[in-house]
């Protein structure tokens, strides 16, 4: 049966695909005909006459226009007939304008298809564009600046055949009335009305319908479908293949179990072909219908939604009868397609009832911005009705509005919008003589997209530089927020935009405010339709003088400024009015004193502890390698815990057979702290996605779920609860809430049992790099979306998602860690966006702090020479002190201090590759190999982050993925495949053994860096040159009254450092410091350790500078000499001791600067000995070719 069906399916699709290919080839093979223009219209009259484009006479050209023509204008050339275009010919008369080319588009109704740009490359010649595929169009649009145009435009192709069997829109269309199809069949239907339905719909099948749309606008679209088991997905496409709408087909109980699926769609007026395309098949289809959007002002019945989540309907006893919406739970919603008659202020009325709950409803727009928030009071019963009102501001035209149940348990009957009169803009206010320019701190803006540049250019006073926030953004349209600080207020009366160049009328930038009630109000629009001049907030008005900048109504009560943009901005924004600055409450962040052992963590997988052949027990050789580190970030796939939905496994996991219990027990016994990183999507969830969209790193929701809703993350929040109930420290979790899959995979297989409060895990991380822009929208969450995810993960979105959901409901003591943020190299925008989502949706704690849904800030940074972290723009890694790592850490610590009560900040991925093809590679430096440099930089990374104030560090990773692969991260392992340590792991182990429980206390000197660590009054000093060129420096360290010092130098191939015992000179030890850290500990005369003073003494040894070093030609020796004593400088061979040069400076001045020629010396190591009175200083110099 299956073989027969499969062969039938293949044959059917082969024949249909072949037929379609033949038709396409025929269309492309036809000789193109000239298609003529009927009319020409311009978006603005600039004095230019385009009528010559209607003539083929090459002596009749479009005349130049100058006075009012220095701007972008859209010129539309209407085709005599709708046609399939396959060639464009442009006559290039003269002039080259690569800086402002003409952009050529094909128009098909409201659709705009880019064909190419014309910059005048030739002279008195034709430029021919052969299109790769025919494009259906009814006009050509030329977006041009000034006189930068082709002088003739000719279009070739075939006239589109007149459409037949037209079906009216609005109206209902039977599924079987298609004019063309691929793959489907019809059958009798048992749905109401009888007749036929379309069935046997497989992936990729489609049906075409010719329609006549009465009016352009937004429509309610309803599909009548039946689905017995599939995950159907319908797309609506136009003739050019553009997707107009997409919706999922829900399960309905069988092939004749019919249900209506609602959504919205925007259509252009006129005759056109719509294609119903089955991305995923396995559903039946009876009809679809279009109804106009509801007009505003007007009334909308609650049950007439165009889409919903979670609700049901029932008969109402309200005065108007009919139905009401009920069974409304937290997070449910209803969408409504509306057509707003005119932009302006409206009174929105909600007809509601509430028997016992404390409901909260919100009105949102299509961008998910909150327009109004209302509490739903108790009304005395589910059918006891009352009306709530709110003032909202709506733009004109078709749009989607959402009624969202922030807190449910209420009924909803209707929604209306009314005005007290006209909604046209009120009269302009007179120009205020007291308005002053409002100061804007450009660094306070944060953007909800993967940007690489900030918005500083909008507020820098420079009107001639374009603002560019970067390329390759995940979101085409996005917001930027400017939060006002406590006590800060603005009254905005006037807004000025400087319009540099470029036009974006179809994709404008808007400026809005958000009030203290979280109502979003647009206040200004920028379209770029002027050139090189100031414009005001209303681009559709022709005003002059100061009046053009004035707002209709002064804006007060702003909590945030919000810029929404596509790609274009003005070059400058200025706000005028009155301003109250914030209260000056900022304080300096306290110095942190982390123990060094917290700087020595590593990323690892379960197979780094256990063998795949015997995954139930610890492999002791592997465990010995793990014990190099004091912390492990367990990179843990959700699939391991829940390979079948609702069946949780731990010992053994039913995916891989791993024993998590014994891994965590052993780590605890060996003093290794585990951070559990729950990441990726299990296969059963991934299978809800179309095959082309499946990626284990997708956003952790079922396909089609709203990324912005906490309820979408229910499944992930449940597995987090189950995991922490087992491995957390709360023994009082309700056992009835816990589930395991106790089945055996084979005879003798281990059986999972419920365990509670094992006390093995204190930290859990919610996924990994949720800002992963490189994976596209299916895997990228905005900051606000990830905050919604975390809110579910943390506590079931404030305990609104039911029992057994969220980490804190399993163990309040377990700390939730943000999934490592990868975008922080460009700023802390992502973190600030998360905080503000919590401010809006979770409110405040009793102490006044924002009720955020995490306990630890976490980020990833791989230092490189381009500050691109893991974006692949660098050519190599960089030493931590020579990179942007300090700036990134400082910004996150600043935000943690100012907004999150000095919340801990961790870095859970950092490191360097050794493969020399990687953009994150360590490099050989002088005589040091790549592995030695990696060791230096890794150890310096630990010291760097302790010094900076980061609380924990985890290196990526324990083992190489493939050391021979130049891909980034592929060769960043710290342990060899045979479980022996690389030099980097040797260095970390040695430093951990020496410094582990010591706390960072202070930095005594910047170059060389001298850090002091302390434990129980005893000090250890870490010294290193913060460079990556093989430079050395001399430093005299004051150890108080210590007679001797122990100097520890890391070395490869052993677990212990090399130790030298050095006598001090009256408590001072002089050291030659290199780019490999050394550590110094004081001894007294008897050899006992003594407390030491952190004070450093400025001596000759600390002031002599020798540079450049290494060098090929010469060195410069310089030192201050305030005592005016004679100075002697000697150069000798470091190995043989041979004297090469001696310089005496008997009458030295206040400073000594001597140049020593090394050009004739052989490459090698040399020593410079500087004497002044009883003082002496040594510097090691490397001579290179």
Automatic annotation (TrEMBL):
Q: Pfam families, alphabetically?
A: CBM_6, Por_Secre_tail
Q: Which GO terms describe its molecular function?
A: carbohydrate binding
Give the source's domain of life in one word.
Bacteria
Residue span(s) of domain CBM6: 171-291, 298-418
UniProt-listed Gene3D superfamilies: Galactose-binding domain-like, Glycosidases
Q: Does the keyword tRNA processing apply?
A: no
Which controlled-vocabulary keywords does the entry list? Signal
Q: What is this protein called?
A: CBM6 domain-containing protein
User: Organism classification, top ranks?
Assistant: Bacteria, Pseudomonadati, Bacteroidota, Cytophagia, Cytophagales
């Amino acid at each position: 049966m299956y073989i027969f069906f499969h062969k039938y399916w293949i044959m059917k699709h082969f024949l249909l695909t072949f037929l379609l290919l033949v038709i396409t080839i025929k269309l492309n093979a036809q000789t193109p005909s000239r298609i003529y223009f009927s009319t020409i219209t311009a978006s603005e009259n600039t004095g230019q006459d385009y009528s010559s484009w209607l003539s083929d006479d090459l002596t009749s050209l479009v005349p130049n226009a100058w006075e009012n023509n220095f701007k972008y204008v859209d010129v539309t050339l209407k085709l005599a007939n709708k046609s399939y275009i396959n060639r464009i010919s442009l006559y290039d008369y003269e002039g080259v304008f690569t800086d402002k080319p003409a952009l050529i588009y094909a128009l098909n109704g409201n659709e705009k298809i880019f064909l190419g740009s014309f910059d005048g490359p030739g002279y008195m010649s034709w430029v021919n564009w052969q299109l790769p595929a025919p494009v259906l169009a009814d006009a050509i649009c030329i977006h041009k600046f000034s006189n930068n145009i082709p002088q003739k435009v000719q279009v070739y192709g075939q006239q589109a055949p007149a459409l037949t069997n037209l079906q009216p829109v609005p109206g209902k269309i039977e599924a079987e009335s298609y004019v063309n199809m691929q793959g489907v069949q019809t059958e009798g239907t048992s749905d109401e009305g009888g007749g036929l339905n379309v069935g046997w719909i497989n992936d990729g099948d489609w049906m075409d319908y010719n329609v006549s749309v009465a009016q352009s606008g937004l429509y309610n679209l309803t599909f009548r479908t039946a689905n017995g088991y599939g995950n159907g997905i319908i797309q609506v496409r136009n003739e050019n293949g553009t997707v107009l709408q997409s919706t999922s087909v829900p399960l309905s109980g069988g092939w004749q179990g019919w249900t209506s699926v609602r959504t919205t769609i925007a259509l252009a007026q006129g005759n056109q072909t719509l294609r119903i395309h089955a991305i995923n098949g396995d559903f039946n289809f009876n009809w679809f219908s279009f109804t106009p959007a509801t007009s505003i002002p007007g009334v909308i019945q609650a049950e007439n939604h165009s889409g919903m989540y979670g609700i049901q309907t029932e008969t109402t006893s309200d005065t108007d009868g009919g139905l009401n919406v009920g069974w409304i739970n937290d997070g449910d919603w209803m969408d409504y397609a509306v057509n707003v008659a005119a932009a302006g202020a409206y009174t929105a009325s909600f007809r509601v009832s509430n028997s016992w709950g404390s409901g909260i409803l919100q009105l949102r727009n299509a961008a998910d911005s909150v327009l109004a928030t209302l509490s739903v009071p108790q009304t005395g019963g589910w059918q006891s009705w009352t009306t709530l009102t709110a003032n909202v501001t709506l733009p004109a035209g078709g749009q989607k509005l959402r009624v969202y149940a922030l807190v449910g348990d209420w009924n909803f009957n209707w929604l209306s919008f009314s005005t007290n009169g006209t909604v046209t803009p009120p009269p302009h206010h007179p120009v205020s003589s007291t308005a002053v320019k409002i100061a804007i701190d450009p660094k306070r803006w944060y953007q909800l997209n993967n940007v690489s540049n900030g918005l500083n250019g909008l507020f820098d006073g420079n009107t001639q530089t374009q603002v560019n926030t970067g390329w390759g953004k995940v979101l085409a349209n996005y917001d930027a927020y400017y939060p006002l600080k406590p006590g800060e207020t603005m009254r905005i009366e006037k807004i000025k935009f400087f319009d540099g160049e470029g036009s974006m009328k179809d994709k404008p930038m808007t400026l809005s405010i958000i009030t203290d009630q979280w109502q979003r109000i647009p206040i200004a629009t920028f379209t770029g339709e002027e050139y090189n001049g100031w414009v005001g907030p209303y681009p559709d008005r022709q005003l002059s003088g100061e009046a053009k900048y004035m707002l209709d109504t002064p804006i007060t009560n702003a909590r945030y400024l919000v810029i929404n943009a596509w790609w274009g901005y003005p070059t400058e924004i200025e706000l005028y009015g009155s301003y109250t600055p914030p209260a000056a409450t900022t304080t300096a962040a306290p110095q942190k004193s982390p123990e060094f052992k917290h700087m020595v963590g590593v990323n690892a997988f379960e197979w780094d502890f256990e063998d795949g052949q015997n995954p139930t027990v610890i492999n002791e050789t592997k465990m010995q390698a793990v014990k190099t580190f004091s912390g492990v970030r367990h990179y843990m796939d959700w699939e391991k815990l829940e390979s079948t939905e609702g069946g949780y496994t731990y010992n053994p996991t039913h995916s891989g057979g791993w024993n998590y219990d014994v891994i965590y027990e052993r780590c605890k016994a060996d003093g290794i702290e585990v951070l559990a990183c729950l990441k990726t999507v299990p296969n059963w969830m991934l299978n809800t996605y179309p095959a082309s969209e499946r990626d284990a790193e997708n956003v952790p929701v079922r396909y089609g779920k709203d990324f912005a809703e906490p309820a979408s993350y229910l499944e992930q929040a449940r597995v987090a609860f189950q995991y922490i109930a087992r491995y957390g420290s709360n023994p009082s979790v309700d056992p009835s809430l816990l589930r395991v899959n106790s089945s055996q995979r084979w005879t003798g297989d281990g059986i999972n049992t419920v365990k509670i409060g094992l006390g093995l895990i204190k930290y859990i991380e919610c996924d990994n790099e949720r800002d992963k822009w490189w994976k596209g929208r299916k895997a990228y969450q905005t900051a606000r979306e990830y905050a919604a995810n975390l809110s579910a993960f943390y506590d079931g979105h404030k305990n609104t998602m039911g029992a057994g959901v969220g980490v804190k409901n399993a163990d309040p003591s377990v700390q939730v860690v943000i999934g490592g943020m990868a975008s922080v190299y460009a700023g802390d925008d992502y973190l600030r966006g998360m905080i503000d989502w919590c401010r809006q949706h979770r409110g405040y704690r009793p102490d006044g702090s924002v009720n955020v849904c995490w306990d630890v800030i976490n980020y990833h940074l791989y230092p490189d020479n381009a500050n691109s972290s893991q974006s692949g723009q660098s050519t190599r890694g960089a030493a931590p002190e020579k990179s942007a790592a300090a700036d990134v850490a400082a910004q996150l610590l600043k935000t943690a201090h100012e907004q999150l009560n000095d919340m801990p900040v961790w870095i859970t991925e950092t490191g360097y590759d050794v493969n020399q093809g990687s953009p994150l590679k360590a490099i050989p430096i002088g005589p040091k190999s790549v592995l030695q440099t990696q060791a230096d930089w890794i150890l310096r990374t630990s010291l760097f982050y302790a010094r900076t104030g980061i609380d924990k560090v985890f290196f990526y990773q324990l083992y190489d993925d493939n050391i021979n692969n130049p891909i980034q991260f592929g060769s960043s392992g710290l342990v060899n495949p045979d479980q022996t340590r690389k030099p980097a792991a040797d260095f970390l182990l040695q430093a951990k053994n020496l410094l582990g429980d010591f706390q960072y206390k202070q930095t005594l000197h910047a170059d060389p860096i001298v850090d002091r660590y302390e434990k129980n009054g005893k000090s250890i000093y870490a010294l290193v040159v913060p460079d990556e060129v093989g430079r050395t420096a001399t430093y005299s360290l004051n150890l108080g009254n210590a007679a001797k010092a122990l100097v520890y130098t890391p070395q490869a191939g052993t677990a212990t450092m090399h130790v030298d015992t050095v006598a001090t000179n009256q408590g001072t030890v002089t050291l030659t410091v290199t780019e490999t850290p050394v550590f110094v500990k004081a001894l007294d005369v008897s050899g006992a350790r003594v407390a030491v003073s952190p004070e450093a003494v400025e001596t000759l040894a600390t002031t002599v500078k020798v540079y450049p070093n290494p060098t090929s030609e010469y060195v410069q020796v310089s030192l201050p000499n305030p005592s005016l004593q004679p100075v002697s400088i000697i150069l000798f061979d470091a190995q043989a001791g041979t004297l090469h040069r001696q310089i005496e400076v008997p009458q030295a001045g206040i400073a000594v600067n001597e140049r020593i020629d090394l050009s004739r010396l052989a490459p090698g190591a040399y020593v410079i000995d500087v004497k002044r009175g009883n003082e002496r200083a040594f510097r090691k110099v490397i001579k290179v070719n």
